[in-house]
Amino acid sequence: MINIASPRDIQGMRVVGRMAAETLLLVGEKIAAGMTTEDLDRLVVEDTKRRGAKCAPLNYHGFPKSVCTSINNVVCHGIPTPKAVLADGDIVNVDVTTIFDGYFGDTSATFYIGRPSPDALRVTEVARKCLELGLAEVREGARLGDIGAAIQEYAEANGCGVVRDFVGHGIGKKFHDEPKVSHVGRRGTGARLRAGMLFTIEPMINAGDWRIEVLDDEWTAVTKDGSLSAQFEHTLLVTKDGCEVLTAREQPLRNSEGIASLLG
Ligand code: MF3
Ligand code: CO
Ligand code: CO
Question: Are 244 and 236 in contact (CB under 8 A)?
Fold first, then answer.
């Protein structure tokens, strides 16, 4: 069963969505070569606390830190550590999930550290476009499979693999709820969307094959073939004629958006 948000829920989700979006904007402003992923964790913790909110990842099913930081071949759920120093040419996804007033807001982006390789640029820009194409499918009456199909078609046409093992998810008063939002699929299949549904779209796109493996820490997911991986995530509300992106940003994201055109 997929919940339909009440007006009160929608208001709560707008507030927490904006908080998560603003924390991600701050990450974009501060992120730089020489920082560690532990530094990113501290930045997210402090900004979240300042808002009177909490970081959802900490202790979630035993996750040891407050944000996920996934560098290069790491697909998702990278654990912040003082040992991981961001270096020129890296790509890193930072996945922020904020809790405020009982509601969850979940958003992530992949950032460029210095000058990206052609492969890093390709996989990151394909992932960015995949999220946009997924969002463009959302409206009352559309099907979940329409979202996956749009993402899969674009990624595979650009030589990239779409991760199957992790999916977008219903969200609201729970971090992960129904429905499961696959980033691969067939048009005209899957649950029908209704206005008031709340879920994330968060395609994980690999420069090579879609297969992943999970490291011995039981969290860090990496590409099986060692290729680069990128991801973008928004939390959204389904409306009659589209969607409201609850984690939309009021400014461009530094060290991510606009870099591709800058490099020509
Ligand atoms: N934020 C991730 C998502 O998009 C989930 C992270 S779970 C954690 O669903 F425990 F690793 F934080
Ligand atoms: Co999510
Ligand atoms: Co997330």
Answer: yes
Question: Does 106 sit in the ligand 1 pocket, CB within 6 Å?
Answer: yes
Contacts of 76 (CB under 8 A, 6+ apart): 68, 70, 93, 95, 163, 166, 204, 221, 229, 231
Structural domains in the chain, CATH included, are 7-247 (3.90.230.10)
Residue 134 near residue 146, CB atoms below 8 Å? no
Neighbours of ion ligand 3 (CB under 5 A): 95, 106, 108, 233
In angstroms, what is the span from residue 202 Cα to ligand 2's centroid?
A: 6
**pLDDT tens-digit profile of 103-113?**
999 999 999 99
Q: What is the pLDDT of residues 176-227, one digit of tens each?
A: 999 999 999 999 999 999 999 999 999 999 999 999 999 999 999 999 999 9
